[in-house]
Amino acid sequence: MFYQGFLLFCSLLLLVNFAQAEDDYLRVKVADPYLEMQTGAGSGYPVYYVVERGDWVQILKRKTEWFKVRTERGMEGWVRREQMEQTLTPAGTLLELPDVAEGDFVRRRWEMGISTGDFSGATIISAWSGYGFTRNLSVELSASHVLGSYSSSIMGNIALLAHPFPEWRFSPYFSLGTGVIKTTPKTSLVQTRDRINNNTHVGVGLRVYLAKRFIMRLDYKNLVIFSSQDDNQEINVWQIGFAAFY
């Protein structure tokens, strides 16, 4: 039942993300006599359009100290940070711009990291890479090595992550995934064979923005390993890790 609820939650996030895609762009009002729009993100590009005082523009994206904006007439161009800081929000206050790295954290697409933790009493070491195809949903590939007293395992997983509050510095997320685990027993007392089983998991976690392009991640998963003898194994996995985003 929890799995169905999670999928419904992700579907609703995706629908809301697409329905409000246009509203995600912040609108600001020109307060200076004019706002100069250049053809590219750099001082070497010429000014090709001027927005007059009182007109509104949408902020589309950022590249270091330059912002791509769109006017109400559909004209698009790049504006210096110094000019953008003199614009007004819909509330009538001056626009406050975060540092480059913190702003990139909100708009991050790629993420790569490593983590370690507890796998039902064994040590687990993981590496992952993720891609955010919307602000609220991302997909993640991970590879893990589990080091136990009586066996070791190699595990590969793919997961869908839902981020209800991607703009928060302490940003929670939920995950649902599946994968394969190969277990190799260490004992030599009896003849044993490697086991390959499918697995699935649900989980929750917390991303914490640290500085520049680095985050810390706390993660919990409830993992179910499926057995051919219908003797499924349920495991709690706790991990802490660090990642870089792009």
TrEMBL record:
InterPro entries: OMP/PagP_B-barrel, SH3-like_bac-type. It holds the Pfam family SH3_3. Residues 39-80 form the SH3b domain. Coiled coil: none annotated. This is SH3b domain-containing protein. It comes from hydrothermal vent metagenome. The lineage of its organism: unclassified sequences, metagenomes, ecological metagenomes.
